[in-house]
Amino acid sequence: MTLEEKVYQMCALRLGDGDEIFKSSGVYSIDYIRQQMKSHGTGHISCPTTDMDAAKGVKTVNEIQKVAVEETRLGIPTLINDEALHGVKGFGATTYPQSIALSCTWDLPLMKKITDAIGKEAYSRGIRQALSPVLDLARDPRHGRMEETYGEDPYLASRFAVEFIKNVQQNGVICTPKHFAANFVPSNGLDAANVSLSERELREIHLVPYKAAVTEAHAKSLMAAYNAIDGVPCHANKWLLTDILRKEWGFTGYTVSDWSGVVHTMGMHKIAESKGEAAVICAKAGLDVDLPRYKAYVELVDEVKKGNIDQSVIDESVKRILRVKFEMGLFEHPYIEDTTQATKLCNAPEFRALAKKAAEESIVLLKNKNNVLPIAATAKSIAVIGPNANVAQLGGYSSAGVPSVSPVDGIKNIFGSTATIRYAKGCTLTGTDKTGFDEAVNIAKQSDITVLVMGGQYSVTGGESQDRIDLNLMGVQEELIKTISSLGKPVIVVLDDSRPVTMLNWIDKVDAVLQMFPAGEEGGNALAEILAGKVNPSGKTTVTIPRHTGQIPLTQITRPYGREGSVAEYPETKVNGIVSKDRYYCLYPFGFGLSYTTFQYGGIKFAKDKFSIDEKIELSVNITNTGSRDGDEIVQLYFTNLHTKHITQAPRQLRAFQRVSIPAGGTQTVTFTLNSSDLSYLDENLKPKVDAGDFEIFVGGNSVDGVTNKFTLVSKK
After folding, report:
1. Which of 712-715's residues contact partners 24+ apart within 8 Å by CB, and which partners?
2. For residue 567, what pLDDT is reported?
3. Among 431, 420, 430, which Cα is nearest to 384's?
4. Separation in Å, CA 643 to CA 236, 414, 512
5. What's the confidence (pLDDT) of residue 20?
6. pLDDT tens string 424-441
7. CA 207 – CA 32 distance, rounded (Å)
8. In which domain of life is the source organism classified (predicted)?
9. Nearest-CA neighbor of 183 among 129, 218, 229?
């Protein structure tokens, strides 16, 4: 390979989404592509078919690959990438609930089916690299992109990450988990700001999902983050990209920039004076590919000739890229061979059914005073009010052109034959105009029950570059809730939003609250079936919901406070029967979610009282459905090291969970098996260590309400 051919394997050609070569007719100029590729090829092409229907996308991909394979000197196929965060980002493709909603299902078998479907749909369109999943953690809900995460807990996120990557990659599509690392947790909640965290905090919290992605799921690629860690931009961070990722974890794939991330080290971080210098710094650190277009890494040809970077650095990156292309079968199968498959799979009925199932399981019932839900069959009229009532929330990185169902449409679909459905917007999301209140009040007065669909929307109150300073509902939404609640009729609030909100100003005035994170194309139908009782709600929160914005960050994994504190400003609160009076108290804890039935946990039984450090720890617990209807319970297991050696630990850490279906009146025995490594922590030298001693196991339906028992871990004999 010539130096130019090598360097261009590290570069990407950008097509689509308004780029200058994307004609108004929506047809690419193959002559332009040929001109760009003929002398050197191109390693990657960014999102060329995002806005095309399946058939046009297939035709375009095959035309592009024909140029790469048949009209360049070496005939190296190009890797076509696109987003697939919760479904392929291609026109008309299936759109599943957003990542934060998927995590609220706690359903790994369902996640396996969904991600296998995503892999199949991506492959059928010629997309061979999915720029997904997002493995940042939702540690600060002010951050606009928390909807893209699998919640706040590193263990839970790691389990969803492994399912996503394994099942997409088994279909011949490379996964690129992102954004490496700690991109969503700056101290002020701002996207891509500098993060000042200890190495211990990084390793114990933020690197956990990425390590699982590499060592368990064998991700073939990985994307660097925009932020800096302790002043070192992640794109130029040799410790992250080489020492940790390759030398310590054994990563053999290739790394890519977040879009224009290499140039940002010059223009934003100011650590380089030119594109060429930025390219040299990042390539030496271990960054292999510059996405999304020819910007910085094209300068590496001249930088090698100037002696600013050794060609051996280029060679290593190119070896990694070509190795993955071979491993994924791209050389053997560069073309889409079955050109009809993409159209057949585009939002196929079986995929849409998966989307609906996921939406049903993702919705969380937070409050249900006097069992106002499900809505009684005697209700003959329902008012549906709110700025999100007539909007189908899909979330960021969603496909366009997919048929989707709004809450009011779903309610009409389910209740329309038995009840009168009246709709009014009431107010906007962020404005102060209250002229719509009169119409909302009027229809609420005429109706037996009101469903208020409030919250936020992607690109308006949340999403990329939409960080917030507080978590109250915006605009006059809270005033609308209070106004409708004052009528004395039952009121259900649906929070259709990409992040949790604070509720103290109004929660005591309403009868029920449902949290619906962006629920995908079938979200409206799923919501309506829960309201009607056709589906028993089973979702559980994967973020802690605070009482006040000022409590943030407020997460389940929090190291203990170092002294006694006044509780005068922390009034007593009661969460699902548990009374708490401390500075950490929240509105709803991690793992919380109600059902239309109730579950009772029996005592935890261990196989024995003492286990050797090299033994598996086996335990079981009986769970009884004490209500009158069948239901699913998400059984969560947390552990506590009762006497940590020198290093403080969070009082409860999630280490296992199971989703179980229990018929009314039935009892199910749930068993767990832990390895001693599941109880490890990082010692003074940041090495994993398991101490002999006493441990407490907590099993419950959320992180505060459950049963406990203790066992002892003893040293090897």
Report:
1. 712/609, 712/610, 712/611, 713/610, 713/611, 713/612, 713/613, 713/617, 713/676, 713/679, 714/610, 714/611, 714/612, 714/613, 715/612, 715/613
2. 44
3. 420
4. 40, 54, 41
5. 46
6. 999 999 999 999 999 999
7. 41
8. Bacteria
9. 229
The mean per-residue pLDDT over the stretch 325-336 comes to 96
Displacement of CA 597 from its chain's centroid (Å)? 28
Instruction: Summarize pLDDT for 504-539 with one digit per residue, the tens.
Output: 999 999 999 999 999 999 999 999 999 999 999 999
Written as six digits, the tokens of 491 are 């009121």
Task: Note if 258 is an active site residue.
Answer: yes
Output the DSSP codes for 400-418: SS-----HHHHHHHHHTTT
CB atoms within 10 A of CB 692: 15
Predicted confidence at residue 584, as pLDDT, reads: 53
Please give the single-letter amino acid code of residue 292. Answer: P
Per the model's pLDDT, the better-predicted residue between 341 and 23 turns out to be 341
Pairing of strands 228-229, 512-516: unpaired
Taking only the tens place, the pLDDT of each residue in 597-619 is: 999 999 999 999 999 998 999 99
Asked if residue 566 has pLDDT above 50, the reply is: no
Length of the chain: 717
- pLDDT confidence bin for 569, thresholds 50/70/90: very low
Distance CA 636, CA 652 (A): 11
Unique residue bearing structure tokens 């102060």: 432
Q: Is 377 exposed, middle or buried, given 0-12, 13-18 or 19+ CB atoms closer than 10 A?
A: exposed
Neighbours of 459 (CB within 10 A): 12
pLDDT at site 241: 98
Cα-to-chain-centroid distance, residue 43: 28
Identify the H or E element spanning 385: strand 381-385
Is this structure's pTM higher than 0.85?
yes
Sign of CA dihedral 243, 245, 251, 254: negative
Q: Which amino acid is at 23?
A: K
Output the DSSP codes for 154-199.
HHHHHHHHHHHHHHHHTTT-EE--B-BTTTT--TT--TT--B---H
Q: Is 151 left (phi over 0), alpha (psi -120 to 50) or beta?
A: left
- The one catalytic residue among 153, 258, 409, 497: 258
